[in-house]
Amino acid sequence: MALPDSRLDRDTGDTIVSVKNLKKYYPVGRGLFRRQHALLHAVDDISFEVARGEVLGLVGESGCGKTTTGRMLVRLTNPTSGSIIVDQTDVSSISGADMGPFRQKVQMIFQDPYESLDPRMTIFDIVSEPLNVNHIGNLEQREERVAEMLTRVGLAPPATFMFRFPHELSGGQRQRVAIARALVVNPTFVVADEPTSMLDVSIRTGVMKLLTELREDFGISYLYITHDLAVARYLCDRIAVMYLGKIVEIAGSEEVIRNPLHPYARALISAVPVPDPAIARPVPNVRGGVSKPINPHPRCRFYERCPVAQKVCQDSDHPELREVEGNHFAACHLL
Predict the structure, then answer these.
(1) For residue 259, what are the CA distances in angstroms to 7, 9, 41, 166, 283?
(2) Which residues are 99's β-sheet partners?
(3) Which whole-number Å values give the CA distances from 223 to 70, 235, 296, in the listed order?
(4) Which pLDDT score is estimated for 265?
(5) Greatest CA separation found in the chain?
(6) What's the CA gap between 199 and 14, in Å, rounded?
(7) Taking a C-beta distance cutoff of 8 angstroms, is the pair 234, 208 a contact?
(8) pLDDT value of position 275
(9) SS3 labels along the chain
């Protein structure tokens, strides 16, 4: 299957992440006196690329496999099969001592900053931990680096925050600490798993602006996982739409928002509220059925909910992601 290209112009070797035929299956229904008889297809044969310096948004409803994909890219979850190349490193084959250099290249920002920060550690200990684990610098150099990163993420003066604990900070400040911890080792690729969804609307913009500035300053590439299309449109160069373990559409952000091709992408766009009381909010055009991720039928995953499904959709396997228009990829038999 051909990989969708980034909309960014790049030469050979400018791809920082290349994912091919990635799968993650979880056994279910296994008990003490019975064998496994079913598999949950959390991620099922997806392929995509992220260019150096690019932000790729991964959007979709809860349970579609977004977070599982991100966790596999940073090797917090092992894939069932498939290939993950990050900065010319085969992620699926590394282990042991080789994980150290890999962890310096790839970091993750988690959804809930309070859950991902150890409440018994000070802010200095939290942010400096990646430096300690990777044996980077001495104590004085680590203190200087932590102070630099806290200042860069907007926690200044750093001396005010260094020796406080997470519960003494606001939600936005905790998320900035999590961002500082992820970037303190100068990674080249960051998986951001809905880093603004747990924050008040009033402070989301500040965190999104910070992520954009850090991308420009440090040349970081992001896989930005979100269910919020407005956030994806603001932050991302391209958007990949995911449904029940499959990527069903990839294109430039504005192209996906203004010209969605896949029926599921169109349903997502139609569900976004219109900020004008004079305009009637469109009703998402979907049927009532829902496909199950456990031992799914080989046909199109969106068949049960698709408003335009035809016999070919029922009788054929799930369609491959293919280029429908210039650099606009979709997985639909009817396109």
Answers:
(1) 16, 22, 29, 43, 17
(2) none
(3) 7, 11, 27
(4) 92
(5) 68
(6) 34
(7) yes
(8) 77
(9) CCCCCCCCCCCCCCEEEEEEEEEEEEEECCECCECCCEEEEEEEEEEEEEECCCEEEEECCCCCCHHHHHHHHCCCCCCCEEEEEECCEEHHHCCHHHHHHHHHHEEEECCCHHHHCCCCCCHHHHHHHHHHHCCCCCHHHHHHHHHHHHHHCCCCCHHHCCCCCHHHCCHHHHHHHHHHHHHCCCCCEEEEECCCCCCCHHHHHHHHHHHHHHHHHHCCEEEEEECCHHHHHHHCCEEEEEECCEEEEEEEHHHHHHCCCCHHHHHHHHCCCCCCCCCCCCCCCCCCCCCCCECCCCCCCCCCCCCCCCHHHHHCCCCCCEEEECCEEECCCCC
Residue 273 CB burial class (10 angstroms; 0-12, 13-18, ≥19): exposed
Whether 142 contacts 149, CB under 8 Å: no
Domain spans of the chain, in order of start? 15-330
Planar angle of CA 207, 213, 214, nearest 5 degrees: 90
Q: Which CATH number fits domain 15-330: 3.40.50.300, 3.40.1280.10, 1.10.287.3610, 3.30.450.180?
A: 3.40.50.300
pLDDT band at 262; cut points 50, 70, 90: very high
pLDDT tens for 180-207 read 999 999 999 999 999 888 788 778 888 8
Integer CA distances (angstroms), 300 to 89, 150, 319, in order: 33, 47, 7
> How far is CA 42 from each of CA 70, 193, 201, rounded to the nearest angstrom?
12, 16, 30
Decide if 254 contacts 57 (C-beta within 8 A).
no
Question: With 0-12 CB in 10 A as exposed, 13-18 as middle and 19+ as buried, what is 37?
Answer: exposed
Before 273, cis peptide (omega within 30)? no
